[in-house]
UniProtKB/TrEMBL annotation:
The keyword Ribonucleoprotein does not apply. One of its GO terms (biological process) is chemical synaptic transmission. Residues 695-708 have a biased composition (Basic and acidic residues). One of its GO terms (cellular component) is voltage-gated calcium channel complex. This is Ion transport domain-containing protein. Residues 361-372 have a biased composition (Acidic residues). PANTHER family: VOLTAGE-DEPENDENT CALCIUM CHANNEL TYPE A SUBUNIT ALPHA-1 (PTHR45628). Ca(2+) binds at E237, E592, E966. It is found in: Membrane.
């Protein structure tokens, strides 16, 4: 079907989507009058789709022959939609069958739009092509989930059903803060394991009759619940809460050994394999479809633009020449033309040398052609100029004025004048804040008009001077015109209606022109060009994403519409209306709090009894939306950056060639001139150019560095520097020679490494709460000793190398500077200590100086070469990120200013929700927690939200928190509830404000952050290739050779005597049926482990126990047979056999302990390794083997990266202890007995959360508003214990 019919079907689908979206779902299947009328349209839509399907079946045939109707995936989907539609219409409503699921299939109709839009080809095909390897990755991830679910089932089954119940009423739960907490069942607190939560025996008791957290959904009671909980943990949502609950229920010593590897293996490694596959498939599909034509087209387009710009400049200069020539006589013209012809040849070759480029617009990047070309153009144009009669003088004056303005516009001072105006305008826009003084409001009001007039004048002047066509050739000028038009519209709008959109802040983007005078301009421009060239792919992906969100929003409305009504409240994230459903799906797509929406969805459909099947909706949404579609953004970013870097490299190569040609021509010209002179021949015919000298000097420097590096690599002692140290110690001085000998001792660096390690352990052992404790006093004396050792090391190196003046001296090395800063600061803090000063200022100075001790572990980086190379790679990637970082900050600033304009002063609320104004928010009000209990009396308070937009700095911090994806739904709800300045919120009163956040998410988390990641990926690739640049091998050849060198031949043992009993056993053990039998046993054993559940009967438990004993005996027999067949030595050569042996021994010990002795130690986890042998089943797949090999290789390549990350975590954990260690606990906040900086281990675990972005926002809020416990620093004022600067230090950790 083509033409009109296809468009008619598409329009019908769109109309059907609109009808579905207009439905409003009410509780208990109530319907509005509009919904009832809309439901009557369903048969008509179904009829149209039925007619379309019938016509296609008649035209194509049904299924039997090739290319028939049901051989197409889209037609299958159409057929299912039509058939299910007829079923829902034909079945009577009073039979009691729930037809919502069948009705929900209607929402698949919008998918037909995909088949009707050709521009989705690359994105959709790359995703479809990636489905096969993605399925393999899915199996790998599923395998990991099953393993961790079995382990969780073994250890945590039934652990989360105990909580504290009131002694006064055994049906009433006693909460800690706002939520119920799992508890450890004991009457004596001293008997509870460390970290477990014990109920207060005076008011409550621990009973096992609680459903569990999150309506009982979060648990390990059976394999289904356990797999859902593990999947939730892998998505990094709410896993810390589960960790803390298990700590409360069982003690907190070893639980992290389960959850942290789960996050590292499941989330950081396995799910990132999805990204790798998608990137590869996207690049291959794009290369196949586009055949790299777009890239070559870009190159040609750039070349044409340069030529066009040169031609335009040539015409402009020609016009100026004409004007000048009209004022001269014919005789003067003849002399001028002759002189030009004579000088043209000489000037032609030297025209580019010493010429400065214009920096205003892209049109002016290439200057005019040579002068004889100008004169020819002048003659041609002069003949075309008509005499204007009486107005001739006027037109001459007008041309003179225009050319004068054009010259002025192209001047450097005019360019910088405009940049300064833009900067001042940006400062004025950023100065606006909540509760600003009236004079500032008035000043900013008039300043806006002044700047607007200036920019309109600049635009009109440029348009007049260059002409409209040439003016609009520049993309910068087009952008200026759009922004100025928007500003004029904004001024007119605000004159009739109050409020502003903040569009004028887009002028700040003009600050990007500053890049034109830097070396980063070319790479930045090429990145923008590459992104614009792939805009079709990006728009297609955004359309696909919108379609995906639309379908799941409509599906959510069909499944959950009107059912998110709970006794407490209706959650703000629901599926009752189309707009809110879209936002809910978008929130799940960003990965934030998707588990909370899932809990509410399951609870609304009957809870754990009948609603668990609905979890599939949320799981599919997260897998296909978050981990598939959104990763295509990163694939596009990697592809575009690769293109941009190719463009930049090509341009740089072209520039180098041009420079070399110009240099060669200049030298030839100079030789020719000297040969033509009549004087005696000079000795220096071709003097070296300054550039050549610089180049040779650079090469000399480089060779010197290479020699130094070779000396460093050699094992012999380093020679002493041939300079006097500190002007008094010559190379022959005995003191200096002794210092040199000590510093270069074989074990000197090793001794310093040991001291650094001991110093780090001492730092981690400090008590940040009781600073004057005896333990801290002992550690202080050790710190004196460590500082003394580092001071001696510094003094010896200064004596040996000198201070700073000569090459190779002490302070010319960054690492030595770091060492000296740490030592000097430690010495200064000791001086303060000895002086005994106790003023607050000195205390904070000592504390700040002592925090610098945490930098000592960084000294190890220089001493471990591979660690240093990883660090250098990170530094290089940060250098490359710099130019994009500037653009990122500028865009962040623009969004912040727009947010200040939209939400300034509107984020206030009263603790009593019924009050809207600050004047009325006084006195007290009642809070009804439950209907059974009497209400509580609470004071009314007028407060600001934790994250707000009252000024630009606060707005940037809020938007940064939104960008991390953590806690942004609450900021979104606050924005949609904002009404007027100094007024309280009204929930979802302005849903249109969500557009701001959707645009922000597309620009930042989806694009900018992915470009950062892509840039670091490409930098690491380039760094690896740069190491091989000087050699003859490329990266693949080197990998092949390394693999060939390291490869070991496969060994297969076989008994010599073929008649012996040993040979018969060996033949049985290595036979294929035996392998399959063992595989079957592994699968059955895994299924057995998955069959355990909470509250199982005694008979069922004993059956499982005996079955486990049988499997253990089978695996023991297998192990013994293999030992008999291979012999002990050959058996233990295979790592798999070692693994089998360990698991068998562990299983036997476990069975013996459970059967005959009291279960004093649980070694049951050893038999869970048997389930890990499922990996043998996965080895049958070729793609799986590649993935497993990739997985193992990435682990091998990561030790030094992990060491660097561990070092950073260590440093920030110590800083956290020193800065935030004395903050109060509050069970209602995220700073509580689980989350704190009061010990090194707690700090590490807390830092792991912002390291993978969990609860970053709440920790930041607490850091700026926390209070100190009275143990150490009594808070005498409401000022926070830590300042914003310290928070920024912490922020860098994330």
């Amino acid at each position: 079907m083509v033409g009109v019919d296809a468009y008619a079907v598409l329009l019908t689908i769109i109309a059907n989507c609109i009808v579905l979206a207009l439905e409003e779902h009410l509780p208990k299947d109530d319907k509005t009058l509009l919904a009832q009328n809309l439901e009557k349209t369903e048969p008509y839509f179904l009829l149209i789709f039925c007619v379309e399907a019938s016509l296609k079946i008649l035209a194509l045939g049904f299924v039997l022959h090739p290319r028939s109707y049901l051989r197409n995936i889209w037609n299958i989907m159409d057929f299912v939609v039509v058939v299910t539609g007829f079923i829902t219409l034909s079945v009577r409503k009073d039979i009691g069958i729930d037809l919502r699921t069948l009705r929900a299939i209607r929402v698949l109709r919008p998918l037909k739009l995909v088949s009707g839009i050709p521009s989705l080809q690359v994105v959709l095909k790359s995703i479809i092509k990636a489905m096969a390897p993605l399925l393999q990755i899915g199996l790998l991830v599923l395998f990991a989930i099953v393993i961790f679910a079995i382990i969780g089932l073994e250890f945590y089954s039934g652990a989360l059903h105990k909580t504290c119940y009131s002694l006064a009423n055994l049906d009433q739960i006693v909460t800690e803060g706002e939520m119920a907490t799992p508890c450890f069942q004991t009457e004596n607190r001293s008997q509870a394991p460390s970290g477990a939560y014990v109920c207060d025996p005076e008011i409550s008791t621990c009973l096992e009759k609680w459903d569990g957290p999150n309506y009982g959904i979060t648990s390990f009671d059976n394999i289904g619940f356990a797999m859902l909980t593990v999947f939730q943990c892998i998505t990094q949502e709410g896993w810390t809460a589960i960790l803390y609950w298990t700590n409360d229920a069982m003690g907190g010593k070893f639980n992290f050994l389960y959850f942290v590897p789960l996050i590292v293996l499941g989330s950081f490694f396995m799910l990132n394999l999805v990204l790798g596959v998608l990137s590869g498939e996207f690049a291959k599909e794009r290369e196949r479809v586009e055949n790299r034509q777009e890239f070559l087209k870009l190159r040609r387009q750039q070349q044409l633009e340069r030529e066009l710009n040169g031609y335009v400049e040539w015409i402009c200069k020609a016009e100026e020449v004409i004007l000048a020539e009209e004022r001269t006589t014919d005789e003067e013209k003849a002399h001028i033309m002759e002189a030009r012809r004579r000088a043209a040849a000489k000037r032609k070759k030297l025209k580019h040398l010493g010429k400065s480029k214009s920096t205003d617009t892209e049109d002016e990047d290439n200057e005019a052609e040579d002068d004889d070309g100008v004169s020819r153009g002048a003659t041609y144009l002069k003949n075309k100029v008509k005499k204007q009669g009486a107005c001739a003088n006027f037109w001459k004056a007008e041309k003179t004025l225009r050319f004068g303005i054009r010259r002025t516009v192209k001047q450097q001072w005019f360019y910088w004048f405009v940049i300064i105006l833009v900067f001042l305008n940006t400062v004025c826009v950023a100065a606006e804040h909540y509760d600003q003084p009236p004079f500032l409001t008035k000043f900013l009001y008039y300043a806006e008009f002044i700047f607007l007039c200036l920019f309109i004048s600049e635009m009109l002047i440029k348009m007049y001077a260059l002409g409209p066509r040439i003016y609009f050739e520049s993309s910068f000028n087009r952008f200026d015109c759009v922004v100025i038009s928007g500003s004029i519209f904004e001024v007119v709008w605000s004159a009739f209606k109050s409020g502003s959109f903040g569009l004028s802040v887009l002028r700040a983007l003009r600050l990007l022109r500053i890049f034109k005078v830097t070396k980063y301009w070319s790479s930045l421009r090429n990145l923008v060009i590459s992104l614009l060239s792939s805009m079709r792919s990006i728009i297609s992906l955004l359309f696909l994403l919108f379609l995906f969100i639309l379908i799941f929003a409509l599906l959510g409305m069909q499944l959950f519409g009107g059912s998110f009504n709970f006794p407490e409240e209706t959650p703000l994230a629901n599926f009752n209306t189309f707009s809110i459903a879209l936002l809910t799906v978008f929130q799940i797509l960003t990965g934030e709090d998707w588990n909370e929406v899932m809990y509410q969805g399951i609870a609304s459909q009957g809870g754990t009894k009948s609603g668990m099947i609905y979890s599939l909706y949320f799981i599919i949404l997260v897998i296909f939306g978050n981990y598939t579609l959104l990763n295509v953004f990163l694939a596009i970013a990697v592809d575009n950056l690769a293109n941009a870097q190719e463009l930049t490299a090509a341009e740089e190569e072209q520039e180098e060639e041009d420079k070399e040609k110009q240099q060669a021509e200049l030298e030839k010209e100079l030789v020719a001139l000297q040969n033509n002179t009549d004087g005696p021949p000079t000795v220096e015919i071709c003097p070296p150019s300054p550039g050549g000298d610089g180049k040779s000097n650079k090469q000399d420097t480089k060779s010197d560095k290479d020699i130094e590096n070779q000396e460093d690599d050699m094992g012999g002692p380093k020679p002493m520097l041939p300079y006097s140290s500190m002007f008094i110690l010559s190379p022959t001085n005995p003191i200096r020679r002794a210092a040199h000998w000590v510093v270069n001792l074989r074990y000197f660096d090793f001794f310093i490494m040991i001291v650094i390690t001991l110093s780090s352990i001492a730092l981690a052992s400090e008590d940040p709460v009781v600073e004057d404790s005896e333990w801290n006093e002992v550690l202080n004396y050790f710190d004196y000793a460590f500082t003394g050792v580092f001071a001696i090391e510094m003094i010896l190196k200064v004596i040996d190398l000198g201070v700073i003046f000569h090459p190779g001296s002490y302070l010319r090395d960054f690492w030595n500077i770091l060492d000296s800063v740490v030592v000097i600061c430690a010495a200064v803090s000791f001086c303060f200590d000895m002086m005994g000063s106790t003023t607050g200022q000195n205390l904070s100075t000592i504390k700040s100086l002592r925090v610098l001790r945490v930098l000592r572990p960084l000294k190890t980086i220089k001493r471990v070469p591979k660690l240093k190379s990883v660090f250098d790679c990170v530094v290089n990637s940060l250098k490359n990120v710099f130019n994009i970082l500037i653009v990122y900050i500028l865009f962040q600033f623009i969004f912040a200013v727009i947010a200040v304009q939209l939400f300034n002063g509107k984020f206030f609320y009263c603790t009593d929700e019924s009050v809207d104004v600050e004047d009325e928010c006084q006195g007290e009000f009642f809070v009804f927690s439950t209907y059974e209990r009497p209400p509580e009396v609470k004071p009314r308070k007028w407060l600001a939200q934790s994250f707000h937009y009252d000024n630009v700095m606060a707005a940037m911090l809020t938007l940064f928190a939104v960008q991390t994806g953590e806690g942004w739904p609450q900021v979104l709800q606050n924005s949609m509830a904002a009404t007027y300045e100094n007024h309280g919120p009204k929930p979802q009163v302005a849903v249109e404000m969500s557009i701001f956040y959707i645009v922000y998410f597309i620009v930042f988390p989806f694009f900018f952050v992915n470009i950062f990641v892509a840039l670091i990926i490409i930098t690491f690739q380039e760094q690896g290739e740069a190491e091989l640049q000087d050699g003859e091998l490329d990266k693949n050849q080197k990998s092949c050779i390394d693999f060939a060198i390291q490869a070991k031949p496969l060994e297969r043992y076989m008994p010599k005597d073929r008649v012996s009993f040993k040979y018969k056993i060996w033949r049985m053990v290595v036979s294929t049926p035996f392998e399959y039998f063992i595989m079957l046993l592994i699968v059955l054993n895994t299924l057995l482990l998955m069959m355990k559940f909470h509250n199982q009967s005694q008979l069922y438990r004993e059956t499982l126990h005996y079955m486990n004993t049988i499997f253990t005996s089978f695996f023991t027999i297998e192990c013994l047979l293999k030992i008999m067949a291979f012999g002990v030595r050959n058996f233990f050569k295979d790592p798999w056999n070692i693994f089998d042996f360990i698991t068998v021994i562990g299983s036997i010990i476990d069975a013996l302990v459970v059967e005959f002795g009291e279960n004093f130690i649980n070694v049951g986890f050893l038999r869970l390794f048997r389930a890990a042998r499922l990996i043998k089943l996965l080895r049958q797949g070729y793609t799986i083997r590649i993935l497993l090999w990739t997985f193992v290789q990435s682990f091998k390549a990561l030790p030094y990266v992990c060491l660097l990350i561990a070092m950073l975590f260590f440093i920030y954990a110590i800083i956290g202890m020193q800065v935030f260690g004395n903050m109060k606990f509050d069970p209602d906040t995220d700073l509580n007995r689980h989350n704190n900086f009061q010990s090194f281990f707690a700090s590490l675990l807390l830092l792991f959360r912002p390291g993978e972005r969990t609860a970053l926002c709440s920790i930041l809020i607490l850091a700026t508003s926390g209070s100190c416990p009275p143990v150490t620093f009594p808070c005498l004022s409401p000022r926070p214990c830590v300042d914003t600067f310290q928070v920024l230090v912490y922020l860098k950790a994330s």
